[in-house]
Batch of 3 targets.
Target 1
Amino acid sequence: MDLNTDFFCLFQLPRAFRIELAELDARYLEIQARVHPDRFAHAGEGERRLSMQWATRANEGYQTLKTPLERAKYLLHLAGYDLQAESNTAMAPEFLMEQMEWRDAVMEARRGGDHHELEHLHHRLRQDLRGRYEELAVLLDDEQDLEAATELVRRLMFLEKLLLEIDDALASLEDGEMDN
């Protein structure tokens, strides 16, 4: 195996959206145990460098595959699909309206210091995301509809960012409560 091996091959997993995370964890630990730079502390410069490259590659692959959104983006990349996330911001009007409503609700709850409402929004968004990731699994693994999967991944990127904004709002309220 070389350093350019795709992450699914690296961890001996099927190239699919649905993967066993426990298997990924176990394979990651196996690889890290074999290539960790500490094992090569007394080796030659070349071996140390190679172990560092493999450890870095394993870390990068693990981080990519353990996160559903990153795993989906990687699968699309391997299939030759470009998300054009930076340049293509066109979205369906209904989705944009939904985004505006979510953002308004978060901003209002944050401004009002409404911890309960932020928790409620967080819970609702998590449920929404779960359903969309299930839909993504069907598109990628069952139907191989990469066009639709690409569009859904672009939407998920917005929703995951919104979830981070809610988390940030909750954290800032909790920090404010701790200061009082």
Target 2
Amino acid sequence: MMTFDQILPTVQKALAPHKTLIARIQPVIVNRDLNGRVRLIVSDDVERDADTLAGCRSIAKELAEQLGAHAFPEEQMILFEDDMTTVLADAPGFALEGFEGVIVVDRLASEGRWASIAPISTGVPRVVFFSIKGGVGRSTAMAASAWSLAQSGKRVLVLDLDLESPGLSSGLLPAERRPTYGITDWLVEDLVDNGAAVFEDMMATSELAHDGEIYVVPAHGNDPGNYIAKLGRVWMPKINEQGKQEGWSQRLSRLLDQLEQRWQPDIILVDSRSGIDEVASSCVTDLGAGLVLMFAIDGEQTWSGYRILFEYWLKAGVVRDIRERLQLVGALIPETGAAEYFSSLKERSWDLFSDALYDEVPPGATIDELWNFDDSDEGAPHYPWPINWHRGFAALTSLHSRLEKIDPQQVESIYGSLIDGLNDFAGER
């Protein structure tokens, strides 16, 4: 029985005898629609050559027979397009392994674009705090990092993009200081070109900062209002002034650019939603972050989730565009057995990175010639920046009052590696 995971191997087998034809008519697009059904898209020049058309019809017939429910009927298996460039620009695509000039394009119900990596922003350094699963202390670590960076004199812009589970602002702002609006309000108002009405009132400064500043842009304002109704609209695309559709992720990127220009921070910290959904995709791949912190605990759910993501990047051919931005963070290192726990975390991390992201080292080559790291290299992206578990920092809701009284040395003992890494990153830009 044919299933979704068997589609591409079946397509590869069907196309293998026709490589000469494919080389002549490339690009050939293998289009998977929203329901997972496949058809081919080729240039309309193919229709004007009888022999070439016959060859394509033969491929279409075989695919229709082999793919079963995952194929369009044979007579509908080929689409002819006059502008292949436009087709390729409409959706994320990746090269079909073993075939030059064959691109797989996925039409997705969501706007998650894990295979499309935006260039690193040329402006203020941007850092995304991401985790494959929740409950790893990511938001708390971000709040503590913002506090420490501001203590050293930096102007820190903090965005809570965990829109479906907001709460970061409560760690940095007491209720009476929270702004009137938040990111969700702007995304909804922007749909009707009314974003300017809330823009100036969606940021508040935290009084926790001393030598620097902490600018907090929450998911919602001090009165969430009809938050669920608004949340159901933030993902909507809009038609921009040029008459082109602008996806929600593009709108979010535009907002971040405006916030950067308005508040002139030294560093931007973005709290991403956990998991592999479209919000996380936007944060990790679309906002131009130069550093993506991947929080991990030593558990099978963590490693299997990151492996799915890494192998997707590998298959999509974008590993080289993203891998140098990644850094693993070892979250919640336990007080008891810390050394053994960290050793296991490091080993599992190195296994994952070396399998999916690092270059293979062929016989006779040296690591210096390739993007590869020794398992014990403390400067490697797989080498975890440890965060020690601490009872007083276990609950984000108590963080604001705790940071008012905390000894900086205690923050250093818990988050020192993370804060040092952030300072180094900000200093490089």
Target 3
Amino acid sequence: MKLSQRLSHLQAMVDGPYQHIWDCCCDHGLLGAALLRQEAATNVHFVDIIPGIMQSLQGKLERFFPPAAGASRWQVHCIDVAKLPLADYPSETPQLVIIAGVGGELTGELVSAIQQRADTLGQEIEFLLCPVHHTYQLRERLDTLGLRYFDERLISENKRCYELLHVARHGKQPITAIGDSLWSQAPIETQVAYLRRLLKHYHQVIRGSKQEQKPLLERAISDYQAQLDLLSA
């Protein structure tokens, strides 16, 4: 199957080769399969917690990527993404963990759990992330974890915008709450529409939010409004 624009952009951001790539919340495994064809890693791991999806994916991988000379370049793991078996796959070079298609809050929880496990093992991890919403909260959490970014992109697909982030402890630039380089990429009409949708969302959320949540939401509204004003100037 042809990759969606979002998955194609994620594939283009993989600047391996890596020894291990973990395609998490992989659903039908399209991105991981593309990375296998690209030979972006020695081993590609497909990870999801839904047994039916993973059983189907196992069969497709056996058909299209049969093991050569008794060795497989891929593994299927039906487990909680927060519990990646990094200890079973040691590497002297950074491993890449891809988390796409889930919300920013869950993405942050998964990144935190995986980074903690990697720190315990002395393993370097890079993350390639594409949350479906709540990127402001996610970015603040990534910064708190001491991560920095190599690359960040804003893309539009089916009238929705997505932020793509490639981050790690050894990244090049500090992660900011709304992104720095995002706003020089997509067409200005796309940026404006995205910011307006974000502002509408946060204005709705803050009305029903708990008092302890309001400071973050107020910061998000202020920062996004400032960026919109800058674009509109």
